[in-house]
Specification:
Keywords: DNA damage, DNA repair, DNA-binding, Endonuclease, Glycosidase, Hydrolase, Lyase, Metal-binding, Multifunctional enzyme, Nuclease, Zinc, Zinc-finger. The chain has about 240 residues and is an alpha+beta fold. About 25% of the residues lie in helices and about 20% in strands. It folds into 2 domains: about 100 residues, Alpha-Beta Barrel (N-terminal domain of MutM-like DNA repair proteins); about 120 residues, Helicase, Ruva Protein, domain 3 (Orthogonal Bundle), CATH 1.10.8.50.
Length: about 240
C-alpha cells in the first residue's frame, strides 16, 4: 500500500496534466467516471494515502489499497480501473478504489492531520492521542485520522527510531516521549520521500523486514500486532514497553 510520501511523488509526476482538459475516460470502475470527459483538471491534491483529481464541481479520489498502482504514458497488463486521456498523454490507475466526491474538499478532509501537509498540526495530533489513552502505539501510527499518510513502513521505522515498543499504550508514554513520537512521524515521512525519490529507501530501513537490531545486535521480532494485524518488526530489547 503506497504511503503518504509515495502519493506526493505521484502528485509531482502528473503536474504536466494540471489545467488540461480530459479528452477521454475509460476503465472498469462502475462509477459514472465518464462525467470527467471534457472537463478541465483544476488541481491535483493529496491527503495521506488519498490522491485527489480536482475538477470544478467534483473531485475523483484514488486510494491504492494494498495492491493498487499507476502508469503515466505507459500500459501494463490488465484493464485499468480508471484511465484519463489528454492531448499530451494519459494516466492509468490499476486495482485501486475510485470514489467521486461532490462536496468541497475542505469540507471532507482535515488537512491538519496530513503529516506531509503545510497545514500539519502536531498539537491537534497530540489532542487526538490524549483522547485515546488505551490505544496501542502500533495502532496510533496507522490511524489516518491522527497521522494521515503514515503506513506500515513508517510505523515500524518511527517506533524503532523512538525506541518505543509497538504494544505500548499511548496513555502510558511520558509527555516527552509522546512529543518525540509525534515529531518523528513527520520527520521520517520526509526522509522517506527523499530516499524514495533517490531509489534508496530500502537501504535506509533500520527495522522494517530486518532480522538483526542495528543497535544491540540482537534478533528483531516479527509479529502481527494491533487491531490491524499488520506486520510489525521491532527490537524487544531496545524498544521499551510503556504499559
Amino acid at each position: 500500500m503506497p504511503e503518504g510520501p509515495s502519493i506526493i511523488i505521484l502528485k509531482e509526476l502528473v503536474t504536466p496534466f494540471a489545467g488540461q482538459k480530459v479528452i477521454a475516460v475509460s476503465g472498469n470502475s462502475t462509477l459514472p467516471i465518464d462525467r470527467a470527459t471534457g472537463k478541465k483538471i483544476i488541481d491535483f491534491k493529496s491527503w495521506g494515502k488519498h490522491f485527489l483529481i480536482c475538477f470544478k464541481d467534483f473531485s475523483i479520489r484514488i486510494h491504492f489499497l494494498l495492491f493498487g498502482s499507476y502508469r503515466i504514458n505507459e500500459e501494463k497488463e490488465g484493464t485499468p480501473r480508471l484511465r484519463l486521456s489528454f492531448k499530451n498523454g494519459f494516466i492509468n490507475f490499476y486495482a485501486c478504489s475510485v470514489k467521486i466526491i461532490e462536496e468541497p474538499l475542505d469540507d471532507t478532509y482535515d488537512w491538519s492531520a496530513d503529516v506531509m501537509s503545510e497545514d500539519w498540526d502536531p498539537k491537534s495530533a497530540r489532542k487526538k492521542l490524549k483522547r485515546a489513552p488505551a490505544m496501542l502505539a502500533c495502532d496510533a501510527l496507522l490511524n489516518q485520522d491522527i497521522f494521515s499518510g503514515s503506513g506500515n513502513i513508517i510505523k515500524n521505522e518511527v517506533l524503532y527510531r523512538t525506541k518505543i515498543h509497538p504494544l505500548s499504550k499511548i496513555g502510558s508514554l511520558p509527555p516527552q516521549k509522546l512529543s518525540e513520537l509525534i515529531d518523528e512521524v513527520r520527520n521520517y515521512s520526509f526522509d522517506f520521500l527523499k530516499w524514495k525519490k533517490a531509489y534508496v529507501l530500502k537501504k535506509h530501513w533500520l527495522a522494517h523486514t530486518k532480522k538483526t537490531c542495528t543497535r544491540c545486535k540482537g534478533p528483531m521480532q516479527k509479529e502481527y500486532l494491533g487491531t490491524t494485524r499488520r506486520r510489525t518488526f521491532f527490537c524487544p530489547v531496545c524498544q521499551k514497553l510503556y504499559d
